Amino acid sequence: MEISGPRGTRDILPEESYLWQKMENILHQAAQQYGFSEVRLPVFEHTELFERGVGDTTDIVQKEMYTFTDRGERSITLRPEGTAPSVRSFIEHKIFTKAQPTKWYYMGPMFRYDRPQAGRFRQFHQFGIEAFGTSDPDIDAEVMAVMVRIVKTMGISQFQLHLNSVGCPDCRPLYRERLIQYLTPFERDFCGDCKQRFHKNPLRILDCKNPGCQEAVKGHPALSDYLCDRCGQHFEQVKNTLALYGIDYVLNPQLVRGLDYYTKTAFELLLPDLGAQAAVGGGGRYDGLIEECGGPPTPGIGFAIGLERLLTAAQKQNPEAWQASYSPVDVFVVTAENEFAPDACSLLEEIRGSGMKADKDYLSRSLKAQMKFAGKTGARLVIVIGEEEKKKGYFVLRDMKLHEQRQIPADQIIDEIKSILVKPEEEQYAE
Ligand code: AMP
Questions:
Q1: How buried is residue 351: exposed, middle or buried, by Cβ count under 10 Å (0-12/13-18/19+)?
Q2: Which of 83, 274, 277 to mutate to test the pocket of ligand 1 (most atoms within 8 A of CB)?
Q3: Whose CA is nearest to atom 5 of ligand 1?
Q4: Strands across the sheet with 331-335, in order?
Q5: Which among 17, 282, 343, 398 is least buried, having the fewest CB atoms inside 10 angstroms?
Q6: In terms of C-beta distances under 8 Å and separation of at least 24 residues, what long-range contacts does 388-393 make, across chains too?
Q7: What domains, with CATH codes, occur in the chain?
């Protein structure tokens, strides 16, 4: 029987997982620089959490959830996103009783039963941040600043931050009414999804990707013309703080999140390189969500970035830093005869104990074949142990990068390889 991975999943093999670790380091560091702390939450939750927290009119809940009944007859769903679980945890642990705001970040696999295509998977990974407990517009700008810092640190320079305000339950109903008036003559032309949205969630028609629907909404009234004073002032301050941070944005009146608990700021980060899957991440303010999920009224804002798309964009825009050129080891120890294997083992342990990565042959290869294999591993240094070397107490050290070879006294070998491999901190940083 030939078993392959399920459709929409992918294996991240070692040559690539090394790049993921590098990306994850950037994500941890960026979030922590802005005062966000990591939460690690379960990959499955009660289905009801997502029905409420993501919204039962959304595509995610209607079509894309991995939902099953467990052996205890509970309805369980593999998490399709990270905001609802973060809100659940915030409420469950009564984090709202502590000093606010609460600034959290998370990363890990998410699951959506979507049609797989380039940049779209059924198991994918997201990094996200959430700031609970403050409605200060400066935090909206800060959340976007984290996102922008991440893409810039990855070496992505071609991107656009799209920004809009979706108002609040005070000002949105009037806009909704005007939008329905405007859209009514086009109802026949909408795609199947938008025909349903028209009654339940008409704002979502504005960001439908179907060409017919896009044509219909071309001259739609802009929500920004209907914002109440509070939402208008909030939006102004968000824009001012973004300007202060030197962050450029594009105002996009079609950027919407249709549900009532989404309020004010909405944003998306678009990358030209990604083609049809152009959004690498998006987010917004959700001042009604925590209450909707059973907590006390608490404002919140956050975003999520798709890590597969982030890495793809970095590889396109900054190939030097993100090409797969991983060497599993720094040092490879070869022996002229098999009888020196014990010497190789003790030397290896000493090298590893000094914090460097080292390996040897395990297939009794000839010296020549060991050298060839060492070359394949990409190890910078090769150490040779032979009869003569052992007798006289030295090792032959070959530098594969500089193509040179020297004899090093046995008691100096660790210091010597350290001086070649361990770079000063400022050089490591520049890499
Ligand atoms: P969303 O939670 O839908 O706003 O998505 C946020 C980001 O997650 C998107 O911009 C994508 O980068 C990523 N994403 C969402 N769905 C998928 C998927 N099925 N496959 C890969 N990445 C995804």
A1: buried
A2: 277
A3: 281
A4: 358-360, 331-335, 381-385, 394-399, 404-409
A5: 17
A6: 390/340, 390/343
A7: 14-171+227-322 (3.30.930.10), 331-430 (3.40.50.800)
Confidence of residue 430 (pLDDT cuts 50, 70, 90): very low
Residue to mutate (ligand 1; options 64, 126, 130; most atoms within 8 A of CB): 126
Beta strand extents in 36-195 (DSSP E only): 37-38, 44-46, 66-69, 75-78, 102-111, 123-132, 160-165
Residue 88: closest CA among 35, 51, 137, 117: 51
Q: Give the residue whose CA is nearest to atom 12 of ligand 1.
A: 306
Q: Whose CA is nearest to atom 6 of ligand 1?
A: 281
Max Cα distance, the chain (Å): 94
User: Strand, helix or coil at 102?
Assistant: strand
Query: Can you give the pLDDT at residue 189?
Result: 84
Report pTM: 0.92
DSSP code for 51: I
The protein residue whose alpha carbon is closest to atom 14 in ligand 1 is 306
220-275 pLDDT per residue, tens:
898 889 999 999 999 999 999 999 999 999 999 889 876 668 899 999 999 976 66
Query: For atom 4 of ligand 1, which residue has the closest CA?
Result: 282
Amino acid identity at 188: R
Residue with CA nearest ligand 1 atom 18? 120
User: Of the given ranges (8-17, 100-109, 177-186), which has the lowest mean pLDDT?
Assistant: 177-186
Whether residue 45 contacts residue 83, with contact meaning beta carbons closer than 8 Å, is answered with no
Structure tokens at 202: 């008409």
pLDDT band at 98 (very low <50, low <70, confident <90, very high): very high
Q: Which amino acid is at 361?
A: D
What six digits make up the tokens of 54?
């993501």
Task: Answer whether residue 428 shows pLDDT above 50.
Answer: no
* β-bridge mates for residue 382, sequence order: 332, 398
Integer CA distances (angstroms), 158 to 84, 235, 314, in order: 31, 25, 10
- Tens digit of each residue's pLDDT (9 = 90 or more) over 13-28: 998 999 999 999 999 9
Q: Do 350 and 414 touch, CB atoms closer than 8 A? A: yes
Atom number in ligand 1 closest to CA 305: 7
Residue-level pLDDT at 431:
43
Mutating to test ligand 1, I would choose from 64, 159, 309, 311 the residue with most ligand atoms within 8 A of its C-beta, which is 309
pLDDT greater at residue 183 or residue 79: 79
**How far apart are the CA of 112 and the centre of ligand 1, in A?**
9
